[in-house]
Every structure is written in C-alpha cells, then in structure tokens.
Amino acid sequence: xxxxxxxxxxxxxxxxxxxxxxxxxxxxxxxxxxxxxxxxxxxxxxxxxxxxxxxxxxxxxxxxxxxxxxxxxxxxxxxxxxxxxxxxxxxxxxxxxxxxxxxxxxxxxxxxxxxxxxxxxxxxxxxxxxxxxxxxxxxxxxxxxxxxxxxxxxxxxxxxxxxxxxxxxxxxxxxxxxxxxxxxxxxxxxxxxxxxxxxxxxxxxxxxxxxxxxxxxxxxxxxxxxxxxxxx
Length: 232
Known about the structure:
This protein has helices at 2-7, 28-41, 62-66, 94-107, 113-124, 127-153, 178-186, 211-214, 217-231; strands at residues 11-14, 44-48, 71-76, 88-91, 156-157, 166-170, 192-193, 206-210. By secondary structure, it is an alpha/beta fold.
C-alpha cells in the first residue's frame, strides 16, 4: 500500500466480490492488507457490493471483517432485478449513518416508497431467494458455454470466474483492444475495452465480455473471425 503513503487518500472505493471488470473476488489475505492500510493511513473504505447476489459461494467481505469500523457497505438490487428499481442500502457506523441521512435529506429527500416496498416484499416472502437460485443456474450454464467457446477461439482469460456476468479476456499478442472493440461496435456488437477501466485511460489489451451477450453464436463467430484474421 505504498500508494496510500504517497497520495494520502481520504476514501478508497473498491469491489471485493465479483469485481468489475475482472469478475474476480478479493482474497482474505488482500482484504486484511486493505483494512490494515486503512487503519495505518486513516482512510475510509467504501465497499461497493453491487454484484454480491451473483456470487454462488459467499465469502466474507471487507465490511464483515471490519465490523463497519472503517468500512461503509453499499448494496443495490438493480443488477439482479431491474435497472429501473433504483433501491439499495448502506450499512455503516451510527455516526456515518447520521451524516449520510442529513446529506440525503438535503439532496434527494427520499426514494420511491413503491419500489422500496416491492423489494421488501420480495425479500421477506422468499421470492427473491428463489429468483436468485434460478438466475445462478442460468448464469452458470452461460458462463461455462462462453468460457469453453473462448478457449476454442484462442482467447486468454485473466481468470475463470466462479460467478457473475463478466469475463475478462484478451487476444494473445494484442497490445490495445480499443480498435477491436471499435470494430465490434460497427458490426453491432458491444464490447468494453480495458482502457475505459484504467484511471488515465491507458492502453490495455484486455476486454470485458458480458456472458449474456457472448453466449450468442453470432458474437462467437465474430470473435472467431477476428482470431483467424490476426493469425493470418
């Protein structure tokens, strides 16, 4: 955590589960180092846990390990249910909660009572748990199909994700994926180049693939053609 010494941050935003774009989870060893750095350099950690419900096997996150001492835990439901349901919650210390409540009253006042009630009923009635079970099954099948297809095409995976909707992969010997993703967009295929996930938009060979999109054989055939062109 030498960067913490150099930049002296006040707040550190991170995703410890199903990290976007890599789809990987933070290991307990790394999580401990983050919390130790927060204590040593006196900064707050915001754990943006928006993909946690896509995790098949749950692992303890930063908020659990920290017991909400220096961690503010943020979670929403729009990634699993609908982007129109802008409902979430924050778990934090009482002092921080009071300050956030004041800010909320000054800015947005309140969220929609209807959507809040809808989410509440889905949670307490067990519908959400059953829905997640079906969603995990569908995503699991799609993820296996996409990973195997990528292996046949010759794409290099950063890591084989255990859950979630993203695969972080690259074409070997490709230094910058921006031109490739531009070509895909012209052909009606939306891919996310690695450069958009870099702090200063540095070049990156990596691409974030959404498995829901990449299960489409038309996308796989397009990637296969790109691989053949680069091998020629």
